[in-house]
């Protein structure tokens, strides 16, 4: 039998002769290439700054750094439209006009006939300010230095395609990754398809009883948070409106009478909601119904502040302690309101007055403290809704504090001078105080926008440990 590995010995060395099947790669074809529909093959120039339309009232504005725009993972622009090659962000970052110009010059220089490149990111729109050298600290932000484009992880930055192979694309795209201030990688449609296949395989091979995708499927009951806000704001507002109107139509003379018999045209809240029937029953039922959701929301708002990723890390113990204090004040406010509702001034005037004082003091302290904690936690600057919520919180708290002191002054003036119409003004201020308190608590609509309150099984994410998909060994 002939040995296929015949050995030819000589003085120069050992030579192996082998025989087998040769495998050659299939030639690359470009039959499925999709060119840009507008016919533009080169990268267009990215403007250094956005264009503002003065007729529409647009003008340049200064802004914070808004690092939130580059945090997290991109959910939309993660696939290659032309299904060939491109650059993708590994983690978030910002691209300025100098980077765009560098990329445009280098890529357009390397493109030949029937090859194209397209941008997949927006033009620079986020302003960056910088003070001149030698300028003193303070006095606000400096002038706008440049504009940048925020990019999240997995975002496709640009694409290259046409009659081009992977080796040709890598030749001038790989060294461009070093230009960015954040990690960027070369990707191809084959690489992305392989990643999708591995992710699907990992999902199918996961033998855990509880997986992340199935955690939301075990929800027994899920209620959008906006309905809780409607309950918190709608029930007491409706109760106040109904009781005042019924008092005016059914018991006008009794509800508007005063101890000094001066002219008065509006009943106070105590006279409207706790003295006559059916007003007092309507008030107690609606206020009692809205207390339950408010207790749940008080604890949820505490956790909302403490779980903020932008919260201060220095003095975190003091921050958590103040969050607990604010939660306790909110619960105390609800209990005083429940006591006010259950015990009318005609039944026990002294206890009713003490409950009112406790309600007012706890409300004022809670409003001020929770507004400050909302700003300190970073929830204010996280989104546009956070900024709007912060402004509305300040508005509601300010109106409540002003109405509280103004109502005290009008009540004192009525009891001292017994002037006509003063008690009517006191009633109006009292209504405004209650409505401003309701308005303040309704700002939770912006804080928990898009979230649900769910009743789930006890075996949830707290008992589930995600297994590592990749194990690295030290060599």
Automatic annotation (TrEMBL):
Transmembrane regions: 227-249, 281-301, 321-344, 356-374, 394-412, 424-446
Keywords for this protein: Golgi apparatus, GPI-anchor biosynthesis, Membrane, Ribonucleoprotein, Ribosomal protein, Transmembrane, Transmembrane helix
Main location: Golgi
GO biological process, one term: translation
Family annotation (InterPro entries): CWH43_N, PGAP2, Ribosomal_uL16, Ribosomal_uL16_dom, Ribosomal_uL16_sf
UniProt entry tagged with the keyword Signal: no
Domain named CWH43-like N-terminal: residues: 225-450
Membrane topology: Multi-pass membrane protein
GO terms for MF: structural constituent of ribosome
Subcellular location: Golgi apparatus membrane
Domain of life of the native organism: Eukaryota
Pfam families: Frag1, Ribosomal_L16
Gene Ontology CC, one term: Golgi membrane
CDD domains: Ribosomal_L16_L10e
Family of the protein in this entry: Belongs to the universal ribosomal protein uL16 family. Belongs to the PGAP2 family.
The protein's name in its UniProt record: CWH43-like N-terminal domain-containing protein
Classification of source organism: Eukaryota, Metazoa, Ecdysozoa, Nematoda, Chromadorea
